[in-house]
Amino acid sequence: MTLRTINAMASRGERFACLTAYDATMARLLERAGVHVLLVGDTAAEVVLGFPRTFHMPLEVSLALTAAVKRGAPGTVVMGDMPFLSYHASDAEAIRNAGRYLTEGLADIVKLEVDASFAPLVGQMARAGIPVCAHVGSRPQLAALTGGYGSAGRTAAEAERIVADAVAMERAGAVMLLVEAVPDEVTQRILASTRVPLIGIGAGTRCHGQVLVVQDLLGMSDQTPRFAAPAAALGDAIVSAGREWVRRVASGEIGGERYRMRAGEAERFGAAGPGAPEVKPASDPVAGR
């Protein structure tokens, strides 16, 4: 699976699937499932690091997670999500950081949250050989300005601006677009006005590809976005498994196979001195004193 493959799928009208991933284990499983694109999103700031907003994502951590995902899913397109302030201070710094995603992060493409004013930067990245996915519509990294996350393009004027942003990004050299949290009419206009593959999240069903935060898909989020329909209930399953482990430990029935000493070694070891005192199960009233 490569960017060329994704382009061919979009040209044929075949939809491609995208999910976030933040570690090699999840990446390996999602590649086995046939997911075409893995986005190492700045949502890791929330779901991995426990911060309240995505703009808390550290660049160095993002690079490490991106490389981990690519090592776990070497046959899948991996997209590195450039975090807040990693491409805003200067064009030179932005290009260096984007290049690090390809070299250190092993990414196939980088994603930037942008509007039309970023066209010169995207153009420079394209000239440097850095594939860019331009994220338009609702832009979570602007949450400090807006007071939180929300939808975009719900007025005609705002919708026109988002379409203009998408067109400007394609003209600047972006090889892929992502649009977030917009009405279907906005998505349709972007599709009619551009030719590169378009990924949607909360943007209707017409996009070439669809992305979700994997925790939302797996039922691991306490609050699921309105556009996400969980396909599993792993959150409940993990809680249940954790409770079962607590019970096993308390009862001394942890399961599995024990290691055993070689023949004759236990007797030699026992002759060296007394063993450790036995720990009674927590359910024993005496052990609770």
Question: Features of this protein?
Answer:
41% helix, 289 residues, TIM Barrel, elongated
Detailed description of the structure:
- The protein is an alpha/beta fold.
- The protein has 2 domains: 3-232, Phosphoenolpyruvate-binding domains (TIM Barrel, Alpha-Beta Barrel); 233-271 and 279-289, no CATH class.
- Helices cover 41% and strands 13% of the residues.
- It has 12 helices and 8 strands.
- It has helices at residues 3-12, 24-32, 44-47, 59-72, 91-103, 119-127, 143-146, 156-172, 184-193, 214-217, 234-251, 265-270, and strands spanning 16-20, 37-40, 77-81, 109-113, 132-137, 176-180, 198-201, 209-212.
- Strands 1-2-3-4-5-6-7-8 form an 8-stranded parallel beta barrel, surrounded by 6 helices.
- Helix 2 (24-32) packs across helix 4, helix 6 (119-127) runs parallel beside helix 8 and helix 8 runs parallel beside helix 9.
- The protein is elongated.
- The chain starts with a helix and ends in a 19-residue tail after the last helix.
Measured by DSSP, the beta-strand proportion falls in 5-15%
Radius of gyration: 24 Å
- Name the CATH homologous superfamily of the largest domain: Phosphoenolpyruvate-binding domains
Shape: elongated
The CATH topology of the largest domain is TIM Barrel
Main structural class = alpha/beta
Poorly predicted residue ranges: 285-289
Rounded to the nearest angstrom, the distance between the terminal CA atoms is 60 Å
* CATH architecture classification of the largest domain: Alpha-Beta Barrel
